[in-house]
């Protein structure tokens, strides 16, 4: 009888390694209570990263839609914007990652506009520079590569952000420009 149990154990171990990867793992950093605090009145080198984090988390909250969910991963040298897109027909989910290095930012501009999707005035920030974009379809049978281990990326020259609060947008623009070192 013990040899039968050994056989079951040996056969079940290789099958356990064939389980599909976990595709539900979201690498983005959660919104914290610090992200919800009022921004400092003035942006400086000491608080610029905090302002960027709070501003981008505000972008995440302001653009939460059923078919598009944003997230962010923050690093010392920059950040990664994560976007999960689910088309209305649910046919082809996509994952997009945009890698932004602060030193590669060449300009930051902003403008007010009327957003027809949200039916209100908003503020658009255009961040220009040399960034990297990776995207791929989301398949339930195989997971996404670990952050930073994407097999390829294409260069892009801009990142667009829409925010509801013009003060948050202005401080985010100032912080991004300050961290660019220009």
Find the count of extended strands (DSSP E, 2+ residues).
6
Return the string of H and E elements: HHEEEEEEH
Radius of gyration: 21 Å
Look at the helices and sheets and give the structural class. alpha+beta
Distance between the termini: 74 Å
Low-confidence stretches: 1-24
Helicity level: 10-25%
Percentage beta strand:
25-35%
Q: How many separate helices?
A: 3
Reported for the largest beta sheet, the result is: 6 strands, antiparallel
Principal-axis shape equals globular
Total domain count: 1
- Mean pLDDT, to the nearest integer, reads 85
Would you mind describing this structure in some detail?
- By secondary structure, this protein is of the alpha+beta class.
- It has one domain.
- The protein is 25% helix and 34% strand.
- The chain is built from 3 helices and 6 strands, in the order ααββββββα.
- The protein has helices at 2-16, 48-62, 166-180, and strands at residues 68-74, 78-85, 94-101, 105-115, 120-137, 154-163.
- Strands 1, 2, 3, 4, 5 and 6 form a 6-stranded antiparallel β-sheet that branches.
- Strand 2 and strand 3 form a beta hairpin.
- Helix 2 (48-62) crosses helix 3.
- It starts with a helix and ends with a helix.
- The model is unreliable at 1-24 (pLDDT under 50).
What's the helix and strand layout?
Elements: H1 2-16, H2 48-62, E1 68-74, E2 78-85, E3 94-101, E4 105-115, E5 120-137, E6 154-163, H3 166-180
Antiparallel strand pairs: 1-2, 2-3, 3-5, 4-5, 5-6
Helix pairs in contact: 2-3
